[in-house]
Design brief:
The structure holds two protein chains of two kinds. Chain A is mostly helical. In chain A, about 60% of the residues lie in helices and about 0% in strands. The model of chain A has no long low-confidence stretch (mean pLDDT about 85). The chains are: A mainly alpha, B alpha/beta.
Chain lengths: ~150, ~290
Amino acid sequence: MTPCDEYLENPDANAAHLETCESCRALAALALELDQEIEVQPRPLSLDALPLAPWEGASHRTWPLVAMGFAATLILAIVLFFAAGVSSLTGIANAVFSAIPPVQPVVRALQLTGRAIGLPVIAVLFIAINSILFFLLRRAPRGIDV
Amino acid sequence: MFKRLVLPLTVLTAVAVLGIVVSPTGASERHAFGKDLYIIGKPATISQPVDGSVQAYRANVTVSNVISGDLLVLGGAVNFEGAGRVDGNLIYAASRVTNADNRVRGHIYPLASLEGAAASMTKNAIVASLLLVWLIAAIIVTLMSGREVRLSSVEVRTSALHCFVLGLVAFTSFVLSAIAFSYLVPYIVGVPLLAALAVFAILTKVYGMVAIFHAAGTLVAGSRNRQQLASRKWLRGDLAMVVIGVLLLGAIRLIPVVGAIVWGLASIFAVGTALATKFGRREPWFLVWRPSEA
């Protein structure tokens, strides 16, 4: 709420505002001249004129679309495995499990990389990057939703 | 002036650190640190016994003598001949291994198993299978916490650059932390630390990717006004946006090279948006210290 709005809401309590605002002073002089009180009416609000909020209609669940998407992906995977000459079920299961990286070689690769770079360099980089991360995480999110 | 420099400097720092980590030693020669041997960018022959491990990056290696440790090969080819053998494990990624039968005492692992699987099956079939898993995960996460996903989706659309920088720095931090924790593995404490880091990284990536799916779906198929929203029967709601996003990014993933690049960038955005919004909760990560008033 602007100082002008505050004055118009309660002229007596915010009389000092007239000393600084020329437009409000002119309005008050006009009201005095016409011998009428200033009546504040809220501006009519058009809901359709407001932009669409992200949460509007967000809870709607379109299950047919979900089912169609799932079926399309499943059929695509089965057809591709069939074309490759692999059992579809085995192929899908193997593909899913193969996405999990083997622990032992990954740890060994990390150890070898660490040894190649050297502990002092790793320590300095670790502190530097995590300090930058700390400062980046302190920023408040910008996106607005209710 | 300083504020304008912060963002590019942060990106450059993160990329430089990631570069150092990804290409150890930063050299293009053959180096020995202690008992280990490093071969980068040039063909080499292991003609003398190596008492430690051998790492080869973008190099063709011929093994004609004994490597008592592990052999790690990233990009290039490995050929065994003569008395060549590896007493440890052979770990490879994007590489060709020949004549390795009965010459590796440990295990032969593809570092990224996807490549190994792709050798016997078409890569697109694997991508489609993984897309199915992403679709299931996205539906579950959206049903469990749709509001949080939406908040993160809004964040990535309003502060895309911040999310990208944060994601890049966080990814570098994950890699560096993993390397740092791997030093502690012999002292046992490194194992739970690495496990916790892995779980956190996976959760961040999965949640963030669902938010990216939502953002992509909304950008492409989201309603622009109320009349459009009211007239739609299917293309409305968080769940529909997420499914559209999965299918869209999944279709892009099937394109060779481009798909991998797009998903790599999406992963960085995903990690960034998950951390920027604290998994959609929009709470501060750290408490602010204020002295108590008298």
